């Protein structure tokens, strides 16, 4: 597993303090992040691949500083957004999955084989040449995940990837996330998705309010919500 390390991290947007002293080392295969709206979860998640760099303190992944070595960090850490429409960049499903490898220097056959494997695994093989925007919400989220996995990152950070999905699609995406061999950091409001996780971190007003097993952390979170 990779080691994700937050050291003395503070972050502010303008005058607003969003993260207020985060020290965390995450090296477990499955880490959940929960917290109320606006508590700072997305900001924390985005810091793991350098989409946001801290106002103060450092975030490293396997010793690589996200602020100074963002490009290398992003090779290691893939990010899945809440809304797959923001992540789909190419007209067809297969082209979209292949997109991040276009400048990788990998042989075309290797790219095609990786894309085909992922489409097969996610039940999208029959849609390879279809326009990506015609997929269902759940299929689009699987496509977004495939487009991240094709580059073989060590860590997947997913920020509320099931929030926009209906129950069936949400279960499908959650099921796939739970079986990935890659390390997963999952931000979610669906607490039941975290039952089998190794560790759950509760973010409250920009600080870590609990960091424990899912059962203990979720209990603490419920107490905080009152
Ligand atoms: N780019 C930005 N510019 C200004 N303020 C921001 C920006 N991004 C986030 N914020 C603010 O930072 C605070 C924390 O936001 P963040 O998205 O990290 O919270 P969250 O816990 O993920 O919330 P939610 O559960 O609603 O997604 C919020 O008050 C938000 O409005």
Automatic annotation (TrEMBL):
The keyword ATP-binding applies. Residues 4-224 form the ABC transporter domain. SUPFAM superfamilies: P-loop containing nucleoside triphosphate hydrolases. Keywords: ATP-binding, Nucleotide-binding, Transport. Gene3D superfamilies: P-loop containing nucleotide triphosphate hydrolases. The keyword S-adenosyl-L-methionine does not apply. GO terms for molecular function: ATP binding; ATP hydrolysis activity; ATPase-coupled transmembrane transporter activity. One of its GO terms (cellular component) is ATP-binding cassette (ABC) transporter complex. It holds the Pfam family ABC_tran. InterPro entries: AAA+_ATPase, ABC_transporter-like_ATP-bd, ABC_transporter-like_CS, ABC_transpr_CbiO/EcfA_su, ECF_ABC_transporter_ATP-bd, P-loop_NTPase. CDD domains: ABC_cobalt_CbiO_domain1 (cd03225). It comes from the Bacteria. Transmembrane segments: none annotated. Belongs to the ABC transporter superfamily. PANTHER family: ENERGY-COUPLING FACTOR TRANSPORTER ATP-BINDING PROTEIN ECFA1 (PTHR43553:SF24), HEAVY METAL TRANSPORTER (PTHR43553). This is ATP-binding cassette domain-containing protein. It comes from Nakamurella alba.
